[in-house]
C-alpha cells in the first residue's frame, strides 16, 4: 500500500475487499494492491474526511487477470466538534438511505438519469463510511467555486435538479414513509432532545458579523438596509425555522438535494470543444422533503457568476421545462405550472437570504496561507469571526451581495 498524509488505519485491504464484494455482488474478489491519498483540498469539505483509493484487484483467486478501479471513501468520524453535529443531523443515516435505496430508484424513474456515483458499500464499523465509485475516473471534475458558474453550467444544474425533483414526486407516491422518516430538516428535528446549536450559532453569528463588517468597512451601503438587518438579528433564527418547517397544502413537494453549492457538484466537459456536458451531485447528507424552493433559492443564490445572476428567470424556465418534460414522460397525474414554481420560490425566499449570508461567503472565499476553512473554523468562535471578516470584506462578495441585499430589502425579507 502507498499512502500520503494522515491516513486512518481502518482504510485497509479488508475494507476494500468488503466494498468490492458488495458492489460487484462477488464474494470471490481479491484485492491485490491499492494506493490511497486525501481526495479533497483543505476547505473543500467540512463534515467529512474524503480519500481516493486506486485499487488493483482480481475477480477471483482462479484468475491472474488484474483489473483496476478508483474509489472514493467518505469518512464521518465521531471526533472533534463534527461528531455531535453529524449525530444530531443524522448525516450518515440520511446519506446512506439516499445512495443505497432512494437515488437508484429515482434514476430508474427518470429513464436512468445519472444523479450520483454508485455506492459500493456503507458501514458504521469502525467508523461511519460510504464507499463510492470515483467520479473523477469518469471524467467529472470540480469547477472553480470562487469565480462562480457561468450560464451554461447553471443551465445544466437546473435541468438536472428538475429531473431529480420530478422523479422524487413519483417516488413519494409509494414511499411517503421513507421520506417522513429520514428527510426532514434535521437542524429543527423535533425528535432530537439535546440540540448542539452549533449550526444555529453559525447562522446567527453570520448575520451579526455581516452587520459589523458592513457598518465598519463597506462604502456606499444604504443605512436603511443596515438598520433593517440590525432589527432582524434577534428574530433571525425564528424566521428561518418558520420558513423551513412550514406546513402547506397549496403547492407541491419534492425531495431536495439540500446543499446545492459548487463544491457539491462535479462537471463533465467535451474533450473536443471543452464545453460543459453534464453535472452530477455529491453530498446528499442534508436532503430534505419539502418545497422545491429550497433547492432553487439555494442554488440560484450560491452558484451563478455575476453576469449569470441577471438571467435568473431564464434558469427558472429551464428548470421548469425539465421538471415538466420528466413528469410528462412518466405520465404523472398533476403537473405543476410555471406559476406554481415561482410560488414555491417565493414561499422559501427567506432561505435565499440565509444562503447569501452564510453559504455564499464560503463559496467565494479565497484560500490564503493565514487561514484554512474547516468545520472547526466555522464552529470555533474566534476562528469563525476571523473567517467571516475575511469573507464579508471580499470585493467580489460585496459586488454581488450589495444588490441582493437591496432586493431583499425591497421584497421586505428583512422586515421583522
From TrEMBL:
SUPFAM superfamilies: Protein kinase-like (PK-like). It comes from the Eukaryota. It holds the Pfam family EcKL. Residues 130-329 form the CHK kinase-like domain. Coiled coil: none annotated. Signal peptide: none annotated. This is CHK kinase-like domain-containing protein.
